[in-house]
Amino acid sequence: MSEDLRLDNVQGNILRGYRSNLCHVRHLILEVTERSSARRFLGAAVSGGTAEVPRITCATGWGTLKPETCFNIGITFAGMRALGTPEAMLATFPTEYVEGMAKRALKLGDFGDSAPAYWSAPFDRTDRVHLIATAYAQQPGQLDQIKAEVAKAFHVIDFRDGRTRNDANVLGPAFRGDGSPNNRSFFGHADGISQPRFKIDGYPDINSSQPTSPLGTVLLGHDTPLEGIRFRVPMSEELGKDGSFNAFRILAQDCWAFENYLTKAADALLELERVKGPQVLPAGGEKAIRPGLSRVGALREVVAAQMCGRWRNGTPVDTSPFHPLSTDDLTSATLNDFTYSGETTCPAGAHIRRVNPRDGKIVQRAANHTRRLVRRSMPYGPDFDAANPDDAPRGLLGNFIGASIGAQFEAVMCDWLNLGLHDPSITRRNDPLIGANTPETSVFDLRLIDGTPYRLRGFPRFVTTKGGAYTFLPSLRAIRFLAELPN
Amino acid sequence: MADEEGWLGRFVDNLPEQGWFKFLSNHFVVPYWVWREPKAKLPGGPRMAVQPGENLQRMMNLVMPLKDRSPIGRAKATLALGQSVDTLYAGLDNVGTIHFARFVIIENNLCMMSVYDGDFDSYVRDFIVSIGNVFDAVLVHVEGGDAVIPTKQNVEKFVDWIHDHDLFQMPDFATDLFDLQDEAQNLAANRAPHDLSSLSRALVLQLHANPNFALGSGFRSYAGYSAAQIRSTFGMGW
Asked: Model pTM?
């Protein structure tokens, strides 16, 4: 652990997920309409809160007394300006943050239906989005209370609710064998498994074989994963230190299109089997996937698993290419204890291998482990039942946190997720699950039993961006500074 | 049809070649429009494209004015680079997304031209990690270079600096220039539709803001492939 890390100066959601005990989240999208009341609120929130102002949660260990609610804030560049941050300080922020997410759309694959021109309110007016405050709670009612408190100091333009899920599309129980929560995305995949591993006193160390990441991966003013490089600390060295940046994204998922495509691909694989015998799943392999599953049903699961790089319950395809592990065998360690250094059964184009190539061979030789992101995400929208499909809005409220949006989030989105630049066998192809695909050009190479590729085509874009913003996650000290700015 | 072009049409068409008109344009008309409709200097380098193939084999044309423009000064810049050739090759290998990089001195400028794949910022960042010291050695000799060295401690500044010194690339579809100019002024694209006949004025004004200019994004004789794709196809390893 870095010697000069003060946990009480770091916002809690950067270093720790809360949902092991707080399964409801609300993102409040705020506009500063009255600078003085906004500052008063921040001053109270950072000083432990009051009866009418929620307390900013810091990263200090909880011990046995877990809080009932947590509260954290992110500030957009427009928000920093609205709060009256001096121009000389504003000039020290990185360009991608200053420009904001909408201006970086092409780099992020936000075009076509995902283009900012089609983002839903309030993200159609990015100049008004000043803060994104996030409340976490055990009960939805607590979120209403926090919202009412925040509304006294800010104009709450809009809010977005997320929650952990337990609906019909989820395979398996709500908790894994080791008791960790079994969070699922709407495509049914366990989500939020792999996180950068930090060595911090008092924090559990869960990822057994993955290398630790330096704190500068996620906190400004500390050593970064890029050798010899420190990211510029904005505001001033003192104030910016221990802050971070976040890419907040509203990502709509088209469950129906995804499930439909699985069936289409499985039908094609079944046809192939009739001619050539089992290609992608050994004969009788369906039983190991789930008792009672049909052959087509099993092939659907294989396609879903290879596209993601994990079976829907989280089992890495690299560890177990033909069936998921039983829930009892799933722990945070087994879910994450694998590498791509040797021969791997995980397709190069699979989602999790693109966004985190681990120690696998990549074109940008110096870049392994350097673009890690802390992810704090929760699904939004009603349960999805594949047997009775509807098209209600649902998807993921994503937070992608890192000390440099440009060197981490954007670099992953642009070069790896969508362009596939890190491996010549997937270059010019997009991520099959969340990439900017069109049926006319989309390609994904499944890995057959004998190791040869089988090309799937014609899948649409399953995930559409509906809005988002780049925010700065100031340290508690920086929040205090903002609260005390002279008028 | 030819009859329809009367004397007035011929006169107007001929105007740009008339000495008095050129004088008038350069000394009054252009300055007037620069005052009335100033254009921001547009950032250099290729812009991200929707088609993945367009994001491969992209061009960088970095033009850096030399501090010392004498033959001795140019020789110093040449030597700074010449001493780093081995490191440079190692860097190309490590970064992995570069097809080639050329350094040329044109008049008073040291120019770095390269063809690379993908996101420019990541390319530069990887380059700094690998061979930041080569950049440092060269930047000592160019104007404004001192502000961004050592590059390893000024990554963000250096990336911005390059965007500023890389040549603006005229869009391949000329009318896209309107959109870029609108965007630079935070205006919605084509909200007040641009008259096509004002394109040449827009171009002149942009050339006023960006005196150095790349004509288009570079022309390729084949579809874009990554350096690693080419290496792997020809069995060179990647």
From this structure: 0.94
